Amino acid sequence: MNELKTCFKRVDYDLSALLHYIDIGDIGLPDIQRPFVWSNIKVRDLFDSMYRGFPVGYLLFWENGQANEARQIGLDSKAHPIPLRLIVDGQQRLTSLYAVFRGRKILDDDYRERSIEIAFRPRDGMFEVCDAAIRKDPEWIPNISELWASGKSSYQIVKSFLQSLQRAKGPLSEEEEERISHNLDCLFDLQKYPFTALEIAPTVDEKEVADIFVRINSEGVKLNQADFILTLMSVFWDDGRAELERFCRESRQPPKLGGKPSPFNHLIQPDPDQLLRVSVAVSFHRGRLKAVYNVLRGKDVDTGEVSVERREQQFAILEKAQARVLDLTHWHLFLGAISSAGFRSAELISSQNTLLYAYAFYLLGRDQFDVPEHNLERLIGRWFFFTSLTGRYTGSPETVMDGDLNRLRDATDDEGFISVLNGLMANELTDDYWTITLPAALETSSARNPGLFAYISAQVRLGAPVLFSDKLITNLLDPSLRPQKKSLDRHHLFPRAWLEQQGITDRRLINQQANLALLEWPDNIDIGDASPSEYVPKLHQRFSQSQWRVMHELHALPEGWENMQYGDFLAERRKRMAAIIGRGFEALAEP
Q1: Which of 31, 89, 201, 378 shows the greatest Cβ crowding within 10 Å of its Cβ?
Q2: E-strand spans in 262-387?
Q3: What are phi and psi of 119, to 5 degrees?
Q4: What whole-number distance in Å separates Cα of residue 199 and Cα of residue 2?
């Protein structure tokens, strides 16, 4: 029988040692699971469990196996710029402890800095999240970070608190003083709390590390390749990771009037891992991140050896690509192309991956193939319309993106680039697609259907008015408008209550996309539950015959639809909606 071998070793630490190793850089504290997501209440509960002597779980480290003498691309003031151990599981716990014991701010899931303020009441050993009432109450220490940040001994802390409490509350009994002193000593001694870490050997690859993490993590969180690459950036190019996070943070915050340019927009607020995919596609022409992880480690695909020089070369390539990805001029020209294609708000973006992959093609067309900007913006608008409509990147996105990037390898100039993208679109958007496949795909009640978003975007592109209105859909979709009630409603052309009276009660049939149209909300309310044959003639009186005809044409409504059988109406309107989508797509090719 083969001797059983383990890929990890067990190491015991006390908390002060863990914090020291993080301070000097021996233990890396990267955001391997994205920004800090614990609530302050969860941090409070962690401290309460430790104070009571309860176990709070194992830590899982991964030995880096990199020499500390290796040069780092990003600057770092720590004694050891290359961590010997990376945190795989326990990052939220250690971030909580490090932030509280060192008084450091953390990033929340919107990339905003915030402090974790945990209060402690020495009289009974209670922890709470600090609030205004606690700050005013002398019984509480509002922020326990001050205990360790002050540099005072436990004797000085106890003495100072007792004096402050006596000034506010009056004399304390000997028993009260003893209990308060004991509880404060216990809090101060949390620095000695014992932790057990399982340290995975450096020979274990990232796939096995991810598998180990999933198997032992009770919450079942999965690590992906982007997590590992972002961790590599934290270790070997921390400035680049910081730039990604800064861009994402600023994309969520409207700039101040007269302030500096910002990535803020109304279509997408990206996460670092999403922008990383764009940088990888631009720099290495890869859709799959797995291969890129080993490239960035400096690993030779033939020998398996890791080279510091090779790693630095690959990071230099990524650094150059990321600068283009985060360039605000590129970013806003691209988003302008998407908006011009009819996708005027985030509600019309069915897949953020699809949007960001389109950004990768925009940058490749601009920088590598020198496609003139006016041609490129129209092309990328059509490409996004096509990939969004067909759900090109919703099944196996990395595999499909890899294939699309591979097709560009034979292209040498702008004409070759344009030809590849146009060829891919033409191969899929055949006559059968427009007349058979797309109408069938529109037979749905899903409010997140890509065909529906493409239909509305096509209406925007074609200058369609709101149904039963002279206002344009594009104007009422303006994302900068913030009315108390949404300007547009999705209205049932055949009202639900009326259909139910006719014996049609299946919600999936009632809520078919072909039974819905965009109306201004006052009209929607006025129509109520009246049948189409009742309310349509009244609305017809508001418009000239030419206005009525154009409105019906751009809303895919057949003449006399208000008197049709419901099933016949749905089938006919789906065909017409598909035709409107086709017209909108073709309009994107026009100057």
Answers
A1: 89
A2: none
A3: -100, 155
A4: 23
Amino acid at 210: A
Residue 310 pairs with which residues in a beta bridge?
Answer: none
Q: How far apart are CA 84 and CA 28, in angstroms?
A: 8
Q: What torsion do the CA atoms of 289, 291, 297, 302 make, to the nearest 10 degrees? A: 180
Residues comprising the chain, all counted: 591
Residue 96 three-state SS: helix
Buried b (16+ CB within 10 A) or exposed e, 517-532: bbbbeebbeebeeebb
How far, in Å, CA of 205 to CA of 88, rounded? Answer: 13
Structure tokens at 335: 């988003």
Q: How far apart are the first and last CA of the chain?
A: 74
Dihedral of CA atoms 512, 515, 519, 522 in degrees, nearest 10, equals: -100
* pLDDT tens for each residue of 360-398: 999 999 999 999 999 999 999 999 999 999 999 998 999
Residue 327's identity, in one-letter code, is D
CA distance 296 to 306: 10
Distance of alpha carbon 215 from alpha carbon 203, whole angstroms: 19
SS3 readout for 513-535: HHHEEEEEHHHHHHHCCCCHHHH
DSSP state of 395: S
Helices (H), 482-562: 496-501, 507-510, 521-527, 532-540, 545-554
Distance CA 171, CA 97 (A): 34
Amino acid of residue 219: E
User: What is the tens place of the pLDDT at every residue in 83-102?
Assistant: 788 887 888 899 899 999 99
Q: Tens digit of pLDDT for each residue in 263-288?
A: 999 999 999 889 999 999 999 999 98
Instruction: Identify the residue whose tokens are 């009819």.
Output: 342
Which H/E stretch holds residue 340?
helix 328-340
Please give the structure tokens belonging to residue 400: 């499909």
Using CA atoms of 529, 530, 531, 536 in order, give the dihedral in degrees to the nearest 10: -130
Look at residues 530, 460, 450 and name the one whose alpha carbon lies nearest to residue 488.
460
Question: Measured between alpha carbons, how far is residue 39 from residues 44, 116, 519, 564 in Å?
Answer: 9, 9, 41, 55
The vertex-14 CA angle with 237 and 124, nearest 5°, equals: 115
**Gyration radius (Cα) of the chain, Å:** 30
3-state SS assignment for residue 171: coil
How many Å apart are CA 539 and CA 525, to the nearest integer? 13
